[in-house]
Amino acid sequence: MLDWIRTPVIGTAPLGHGVWRRVHDRFARGVRRYRAVIDVVPSRPVRMELAEIGEDLDEILELVREACEHAQAAAPSEGPDVPVGPGDVYLDVHRRLARAATLCGRASESAMMTRVAVRMKDADGVRDHIDAARRTVKQVREMVEGAVI
User: Fold this and answer.
1) Distances in whole angstroms, Cα of residue 16 to Cα of each of 43, 55, 94, 127
2) Are 144 and 60 in contact (CB under 8 A)?
3) Who contacts 65 (Cβ-Cβ below 8 Å, separation ≥6)?
4) Residue 113 lies in a domain
5) Sign of CA dihedral 122, 138, 8, 84
6) More confident residue, 81 or 110
């Protein structure tokens, strides 16, 4: 239920029903999944550190929404095909956003491995997985910032 509350509801108008809506929703699911994983981390300090990383993902989700809204306004999509645009610019935007969504899933995996390391009382593993999540979110940000036109 908290996932539903945290995820902003966006009408169909700004994103349409095509590829821009789907790539946005895919990224939003990745962020929700990350939040769901960290909500059950048994160590409060570790959970708080992972939550800070999650705040970065929330900020990036706003950038993804803006990029998708801009792309929908410039190159509307109501179907499964990505609009090409001059110099294949929209193909690149879509590729970057889809890759960012995949990386968001990787951040969730790192958070899950952090949870496992906490349960196994592996302090080095906890630190390694938190660092991996942080690096992955940095890659997500770079990918999304490269997609903004």
Assistant:
1) 41, 27, 15, 41
2) yes
3) 8, 10, 15, 24
4) yes
5) negative
6) 110
* pLDDT confidence band for 54 (50 / 70 / 90): very high
In a domain, 2, yes or no: no
**Amino acid, single-letter form, for residue 62:** E
CA dist 104 and 131 (Å) reads: 14
Output the pLDDT for position 1: 52
Q: Work out how many domains the chain is built from and give that number.
A: 1
Average pLDDT, the chain: 91
Give me the residue label for tokens 């294949």. Answer: 88
pLDDT of residue 6: 55
Average pLDDT over residues 42-48: 96
Domain that holds residue 104: 11-147
Question: For residues 78 and 122, which has the higher predicted lDDT (pLDDT)?
Answer: 122
What is the distance between the alpha carbons of residues 26 and 37, in angstroms, rounded to a whole number? 17
Residue 141 lies in a domain: yes
- As given in the structure block, the two tokens for residue 141 are 């940000």
